[in-house]
Amino acid sequence: MSPDRPLRLLHTADWQVGRMVSAFEPDDAAALYEARFAAIETLAALANEHEVDAVLVAGDVLDAQTVSDKTLRRTFLAMQAYRGPWCLLPGNHDAALAESVWSRAQRLGLLQPPMVALLEPRVHTVAGRFALLPAPLTQRHTQGDLTEWFDQAETPPGLPRIGLAHGCISGVLPDDLDAHNPIAAHRAASARLSYLALGDWHGTRCIDARTWYAGTPETDRFRANDSGQALLVTIHPPAAPTGDGTADTGSVSVEVLTTGRYRWRSQDVRLAVPSDADRLIEDLLRSEARDVLQLSVSGVADMHTLKRLDAAVSAARAQVRAMVWSATALRLEPTDDDIAALHADGFVGEVVAQLRAEQADAALGQRARDALMILARLLDEVAPPSAPEARP
Asked: From CA 54, how far away is CA 379, in angstroms rounded?
């Protein structure tokens, strides 16, 4: 490959292979676990398709130091389709401790050139095409900026300077994420970087033209943060050194590539009028096999609406990848026709009436709602079939 052609990199991060999502049923959790290996295979295919010079993985390759040897082997096996350099940075989940998942990978013989685990903060020349400045985490949390050394680092003349780090750009991400592993927002400029590849935030995010979070390649939470992607970074060759010994960092372009298999969607729906339930049911029936749903329903519903909603939820569970459903805040308000249809006479009728009254009580309301919904369903199941209409 000609050294004069643009440098092309695939930037990804936060694979967190080995992560299990406990909120789902076991078979659904297993499928989401497997999707992380498929995401790596997708990255390898994209690296080949776009003929990149290297894949930059900006931390949290593995979800924990305790992942099994089998998971480790499968991770590196999924990377093998791309034979170029994989530049792997330890993050807060897989920090480069004295004894770590990385030392275990080395003992297992999984880290084979041109794959490299960036366990120390030193300059790496990658494929003769660029100088890589990594800031590996050697513990889960730090209070200092591990990218400070980039500013003074000496790199081979004429090669683009690429930074690789895992942490939080100060003052940009949500406040609760700024406490650990800070990174200065101006680092790309102060360190004369052509590009700063970041990990830790699980969504794609542009900090400035040369500083990006790639996000996780397979969505793993119900936060609308533009995840399930990777970044194709193209850097045009820098100009020749100027008279003062500095060099142009070259122009950069970033293209967002879709990598995720599943679409995570979260909805909080309040039912107030029948049309609210109609819209929710229509949305559930449009669900697809790639959907991972979190649905919370509140408000009020009569028996007819509740039966329709139960049927729609059951159908959706069968057609989506995974679903978390909560109706604890949904209040059942049977109509007089609902109660009559249940044939709740005598003592049972008195219990139904009492539960209907207790729903408004602050202390008893939730238990009364739950009990009424259970009782109404049971009575509906054992109710005699409706008599056929008389023919004229």
From this structure: 64
Q: Give start-end residues of each CATH 3.60.21.10 domain in the chain.
A: 7-258
- Contact between 217 and 190 under an 8 Å Cβ cutoff? The reply is no
109 within 8 A of 73, measured Cβ to Cβ: no
d(CA 278, CA 302): 13
Give CA–CA dist 214/230, Å, rounded.
5
386's tokens: 């409706």
The CA distances from residue 390 to 34, 191, 245, 386, 387, in Å, are 57, 87, 99, 12, 9
DSSP letter for each residue of 332-371: E---HHHHHHHT--HHHHHHHHHHHHHTT-TTTHHHHHHH
Write down the pLDDT at residue 245: 46
- In 3D space, the residue among 364, 386, 280, 362 whose CA is nearest the CA of residue 327 turns out to be 280
Q: In this structure, what token pair is assigned to residue 37?
A: 């290996």
CATH class of 7-258: alpha beta
Contact indicator for 7, 234 with CB cutoff of 8 Å: yes
How many Å apart are CA 50 and CA 363, to the nearest integer?
62
Location of structure tokens 């004069």: 4
> What dihedral do alpha carbons 237, 238, 239, 244 form, nearest 10°?
-160
Closest CA to 354 of 343, 364, 340: 364
User: Would you state the pLDDT for residue 344?
Assistant: 63
Per-residue pLDDT reduced to its tens digit, 27-86: 999 999 999 999 999 999 999 999 999 999 999 999 999 999 999 999 999 999 999 999
Is residue 305 within 8 Å of 276, Cβ to Cβ?
A: no
The dihedral sign for the CA sequence 22, 23, 26, 30: negative
Q: What is the DSSP string of 8-44?
A: EEEEE----BT---TTS-HHHHHHHHHHHHHHHHHHH
Residue 129 burial (CB count, 10 A): 20
Helix, strand, coil shares, percent, the chain, to 5: 30, 25, 45
